[in-house]
Prior knowledge:
The protein is about 30% helix and about 20% strand. The chain is α+β, with helices and mostly antiparallel strands and about 200 residues long.
Amino acid sequence: MTGQLVNKTLAIISLKAGNANGETGSNRLVLSGCQCPGVYMNKVYLLIGGNMGNREEALAKACMLIGEQCGELMNISSLYETEAWGKNNQPSFLNQALEINTSLKPLQLMQQILNIEKQIGRIRHEKYGPRSIDIDILFFNDEIYKYPSLTVPHPEIQNRRFVLEPMNEIVPSLVHPVLKKTIAELLEECPDHLPVVKL
């Protein structure tokens, strides 16, 4: 069952089929979740990652649950592998960037993300420590939020190559609302030199 879940979900989320008009090269419309006709949809970018157990299965399950419980998955990057950031005496991480449309507000989305992490089995022991799944909100529309439990845009985007590489794959022209630079520009200037390998 585990292998079937991974293969089925990864097959869905990596699909790059053309539509009826012959368009190709899109990862769009992979899993549908909270559809609310007539409700304004927020465009949100997330980063998912993990370095414990079956990493591919954990990311696939995260994509599936996000699509079911948070909103509509609109785009998804390839998988990227990198050494652990912040505490390197642990296994390498797999990471993936997602674009979703959601009717949830920032703190509502954050709470739902925490619930999904728990469903996948995350237990928080230490900062930068090993984890089965980690889901971060990177951008929420082009808006800026500072709550005690959440800062958007994520304050470390420009310093983490493992964030910028998958984001650059799906939305290189996105402008950081605080730094006023595109993802492509931030990647070019990124001080993080840990290698990030596209799988």
